[in-house]
Every structure is written in C-alpha cells, then in structure tokens.
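cron nightly-structures :: item 1 of 1
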Amino acid sequence: MFTRHTILVVFIIGIWKVSYPQSFLDIKPDNFQLAVFGNYVTSAEIEINPLTSNSIDRFSSEEINGGFGVGFSVKKRIFLDNFYISLSTEYIKINDDQNAQYIYNNDTNYLKVRVYETIWMVPVELSFIFDVPSIADELKIYLGGGLGIYFGDRKRRIINFETETLSTSPKLNLQVLCGMEYKFSKNISAILQFNFRDAQFNVHNRYATDRFVYQGYDYFFEQDMHSKIYFDGLKICLGLSYNF
C-alpha cells in the first residue's frame, strides 16, 4: 500500500519541477469549495470468516469486481493560502455474481451454486490537503490524507436464499489522496482525484435456513456468517466544484 503512495509522491514532485507559463487568470486562493463527484472503485474484498479459529479459513476471501458511486465534499482553507481541511462522503454499491459456493450432502455429494454478492459503503472522511505551489494559476495539484470511518452492509444470495443483516460495525482507518484541479473561471473547477484507503467494516448476516432440498436430498450450508468487507481498491473521482 505505502509503496504505491511513495511512487505517487515522487511522480508529483517531478511534475512540480516543470515550469508553466503565467496564466491570464488572476485567481486568488479560495476560502471554501463545494464539490460533487462521480466515483469508481477498482475492486473490493470479502473476508469470509474472520472469527474462526482455523488459521486457513480465517484468511480466506472473495475478490469482488469494482463499482460506481457518487459523493460530495466541503473544503475550507485554513492557516495558509495552500492548506485546507476537507470533509467528504459518498455512496458506492457493488453487485457481483462471479463467485461460487459448494454445498454438501455428505463427503461425496455436493452442489456448486452461483453466489450473488451485493455490498455498499458510506464513508465519512476528514482530510488535510496541501496544494503544491507555483504550478499555474488555473491548474493546481494537491496531496492530502487523514482519517475515515466506514459504514456499510452486505447481502449474499445463493439459489433462492438471501441473507438478512443482524448487525454491522464501522471501522476507523487511514486514507491518502492526490489530485488535480483545473479552474475554468474564478468559481468553477474540474477535479480529478485518486484515493488510496483501507476502508473496512464488519457484518453479521444470517440465512433463514441452513439447508436446500435437491432431488430428495438435503444439502447443507452455513447459516450464520461473520464477514469483514474491504473497499481497498483505488478510488478514481471526476467532479465539479464551486469555489468562493
């Protein structure tokens, strides 16, 4: 995780050293910024049984495809012309049907069934952001990071059985970001931003039953599930902001 962050910082410092012509826009630092984003998260992961005493099962997981979301942020300048504090949130949902599960009648008879997973997350993230200086008046590149608390849920469906959620537990973790902002005018900007985070939360789910009857035989599956959800893929944001 931090290797990617180091490469990113080195890349941005390299960009910083490039000189740009003076802009015709005489734009002063903004005190506030309101922004709306469309987001894409490249991947997620479900840790299937983190509470088991079996060390192998405890680290078994499912990879989940990426998904889209929407979000907004509020940013305020503090202390210096190029230092800001930001509060942001979003809603992102992922549907995935690329995994499978085995359900057993006994040691020799089993069925392989498709798994339908739905996970969603709503984070609340507090960030401190620093504008890299002296690039151009209308173009800014920035770095930042802070803390986030991550809320969410999971639904799992096999055959015609879907789980209900008994409880969820949000988690607090670190997050870092970088991005660029291009000003079309004094008040309107386009934003491209990348977030790296270890967003996670715990979910306790339960099926209404623990068995499925097929051709006169009972096939069994685990009724209660304790899982840990990670939205740990790269988040890519495209947005518009109003600055004042």
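cron nightly-structures :: done
Residues 30-243 form a domain with the Porin fold (CATH 2.40.160.20).
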